Amino acid sequence: MVVTNSLLSDFNEKYKFLLNNITDVIIETELNGIFTYISPQVRDQFGYKPEKVIGENFLEFIHTDDISIVKKALMDITKFKKIFYVECRVKHKAGHYIPVSVQGNFVEVQDTLRLVGTLRDISEKKIAIQNHKNIERQLKTSEIKYRTIFEQTVDSIILIDSINGEIVDFNEQMHKTLGYSREEFEKLRIPDFDLMENEEDYKAHLEKVVNIGSDSFETKYRTKTGEIKDILVKAKAIEIEDKIFLHSIIRDITKKRQAKKQTDEINTLKSELLSRTSHELKTPLIAIRGFTDLLLELHRDKYDDETISILDEIKYGTERLEAIINKLLETSLLESGSILLNTKKEDLSFLIKFCARNLRGLAETRNQFMHLNIYDKIILDFDKEKIHEVISHLIINALKFTPPYGEIKIQTNFRDDFVVVSVRDNGIGFTKEEKKRIFKKFGKIERYGQGWNIGIEGTGMGLYTSRKIIELHRGEIWVESSGRNKGSKFSFTLPLKRE
CB atoms < 10 A from the CB of 241, how many? Predict the structure, then answer.
C-alpha cells in the first residue's frame, strides 16, 4: 500500500482534531515519569499550559498521600504487562486537588517505550459515590430508628397488605395487647378479633383507606381470653417498593373510656346536687326577701335610720345571694345540656349599643371613656337574652379592671362566615397562667387588696357561662393580653348563617 503525503497529512489532521476535542487529557511520559506530551485540555481542567508541563515529572503533580499508590500501579504494569489504571488526586495550578482516574499502557514510540494514557476528572463520580454512601447510611439509620420506635412504642402498630388484607408485620405490643403469642397472632386476620367488621366490611374499609389516604376510627377488639377492649385506630396508606400497605397505630382506650364514663356520672351527680341545693336555698331566700320588702314598705316610718339601714343590707344581701343562686342554676342547666336557645333574627348592633348605654353610668362614676366602633344593622340568628348576658359581662369586667380615666373600646368585624365582637380595655390585663383559668368554672381571678374593687362582685362563673352560651351558638370566645398592666381584649364570634 502506498501512503502519499496527502493521505498522511489528512490522517494527522484527523488525529489532531480528535486530540483537541476529546474531554480527557491525553498524556505521554517516559518510563521515569517525565512528560513528553500532554494535550491542550490540561489548560481547561487543571489550569496549566501544555508547554509548561512537558519536561516535568508526573509524580510532582500527585497528592503526597497518593504517590505510593501510583508507584505501585506503575510497577504492576511493568511486571505483569497489564493495562495501567489508578485513581488519585492531581494538583490544579490554583493549589487545590482534583480526583482523577489515570488509565494507559506502554507503547513503543521510535524504538523507545513510553506510557501513553488519559487523565479523567472523576469529581462528579466521587460526589455521586459519596452521596450514595450517605443515602445508604441515612437509610440504615432511619431503618434502625423506625425499628426501635416500632418495637418500643407503647402503642400497637400493624402493617397490612392492602391487596389481600394479610398482616405482614406487627410490633410486640400488638400481640400482647390481645393476649396472643407472636406465632399465634401471625395466623390471624383483622376480622378474627375486630367485632365491628366482618370479612366483607374489612375489605371495603381497606379499599376506602387506600382511596382517601388515611382514616381514624374507633372499634372494639376481642382478646384471646374473650375480653372486649375499646380501640382507637389511626390508619394511613403508605407505599413500599411500589406496593400499597396500611400502616395502623392502634391504641387501647378502654381505661380512658371507663374513666370518662365515671367522670360523666360524677359531673351529672354534681350538677343534680347543685341544682337541688340551689332550689332548696332559693325557697327560704324568697321568704326572707319578701318579709324584708314588706317591713320596709309598710313599717318604714316606725323604724329609726339604723334599723332601716340594717333592713336595706338584708335586702341587698338577699338580692346578691339570689343572683348567685340563679347563676349556679344556669350553670347547672348549661352543663346538663338542658338549656334550649330561643334564637331568632335580631340586630346585634342594637343589642351592643343597648348594653353599652345601660353601663355608661357605671363608666362615668369611674371617669372612664367608652368608645363604640360597630357596624350598623348586623342581622343574624341568636338568643337575645343570652347574648345580652355575655356582652354585659364582658363590658362589666372591662370596667372593673380598668383604672379611672381608662378606655374601653367595643368593636365589630367580620371574619369568614362569622361576626367578631371585641371588648378591649387598657386595664390590669392577665398573666399567661390566668388566661388558662378564666374560662373555667369558678375561674375568677381575685383582685382584693390590689386597688381594683369598685363594688361589682362576681361568682367566678360569668366567663364560664359566657363560653358555654357562645359555644351553644356555634361560636368561639377567647382573650388576648400581653401581661400584667397591659390591658386585655375579649372577643367572641357568632355565625352569620344558621346551619
Answer: 5
